[in-house]
Write a structure and sequence with these properties.
The protein is mainly α and 188 residues long. It has helices spanning 4-20, 26-33, 37-43, 47-70, 76-93, 95-106, 112-120, 123-134, 143-164, 168-186.
Length: 188
């Protein structure tokens, strides 16, 4: 269990990574959180460890919320639809976290073991996709390629909705329609 200061440092790092990127100084993260730089390093020995912790924290929080609805579904289509709708809603509610996560993922600062650990929280999706491939329901493609396509399309829909300033109801309809496009693209 994380202390309040650790949680504060993580929340502050998320905000600043989303605003300034991975070049943000640890001194600024500490100062913004209202602690000394030494205190930050008592909790996170290096900037790398802080950023890896932020990455894993966002992944775990996102997965917990998104997979709760999907776990209630039995068919692959309904499971992926639940993931799709929950992920789109989570992205709309958490733009700062998404920006920080995407910044960290594209930074090449995260080691393979950390990205592998981050993907473990999504294991249920990979299992369902592999089963769908095995059952001949969806195309035979790497599950990671399918999830990357899913993620990319949802980000595109969110960006489009933001640019068009769509109300929530229209965003939900657009999200559902984009799932139909995705589903047609992966099914046989």
């Amino acid at each position: 269990m994380m202390s309040e200061k650790q949680q504060l440092l993580i929340r502050t790092a998320i905000q600043l990574i989303s605003e300034e990127g991975v070049g943000v100084a640890t001194a600024k993260i500490a100062r913004t959180a209202g602690v000394s730089n030494g205190t930050l390093f008592n909790y996170f020995a290096t900037k790398q460890i802080l950023f890896e912790t932020v990455y894993l924290h966002i992944n775990k929080e996102m997965a917990q919320e998104i997979l709760v609805q999907a776990d209630k579904q039995t068919s692959l289509k309904h499971f992926l639809l639940a993931v799709w709708m929950s992920f789109a809603a989570w992205c709309a509610r958490n733009p700062v976290e998404i920006e920080a996560l995407n910044t960290l993922k594209s930074s090449q600062l995260l080691g393979d073991s950390v990205t592998d650990e981050g993907e473990k929280v999504w294991a249920k999706i990979f299992v369902m996709l592999e089963q769908g491939i095995s059952d001949g329901v969806i195309i035979n493609a790497p599950a990671r390629l399918i999830t990357t396509s899913l993620e990319g399309l949802i980000h595109s829909v969110a960006a489009y909705a933001s640019q068009q300033n769509l109300p929530e109801l229209h965003y939900e309809k657009l999200t559902r329609r984009s799932f139909d496009i995705f589903w047609k693209g992966i099914t046989l």
